[in-house]
Write a structure and sequence with these properties.
- The protein is built from 3 helices and no strands.
Length: 155
């Protein structure tokens, strides 16, 4: 065989032997790195599991709180419906009262107009027959007597 060829083959074999150690070391390093990453993933997974357990506990607590709240909301809604019905009846009654008050107000205006006419008639009678004095008797008695009327009464 050719010495050059043998040297080349020996060099290739030596390189293969030396490279295999590097490749094995590289594989070993990569496996160690993968193991570290898997350990970190396991830690994170454990944290996620704890978080899920806490969330389940919180969900249970919320369910315990929300069930009575939902029941109370149902009774509150029923009460509000009852109050709405009562308010509707009150509103109907108030509208009826408004109508009645408007009618009474019209009647009172009519009575007031009649009384005004009666006052004018009484005033006319008073002015025609001064000694009867149907209106204003109390007003004239409560007035202080003038000096002229006191002199007329003493004579």
């Amino acid at each position: 065989m050719n010495p050059k060829r043998i040297t080349t083959i020996l060099g290739a074999i030596a390189a293969t032997v030396l490279l295999q150690g590097c490749i094995v070391q590289d594989i070993h390093d990569q496996i160690a790195l993968s193991n570290e990453k898997l350990a970190a993933i396991d830690e994170n997974f454990a944290k996620v599991e704890r978080a899920n357990a806490l969330l389940e506990s919180l969900q249970t607590q919320l369910d315990e709180i929300l069930v009575p709240v939902n029941q109370n909301l149902g009774s509150i809604e029923a009460r509000l419906a009852s109050i709405d019905a009562q308010l509707e009846r009150i509103n109907t009654n108030l509208e009826s009262m408004d109508t009645s008050i408007e009618q009474v107000e019209a009647d009172l205006k009519s009575v007031s107009a009649s009384l005004t006419s009666l006052r004018k008639t009484i005033s006319n009678i008073d002015s025609t027959i001064p000694f009867l004095k149907f209106s204003g008797d109390d007003e004239e008695e409560s007035k202080p007597a003038s000096p002229e009327s006191q002199q007329d009464g003493s004579n």
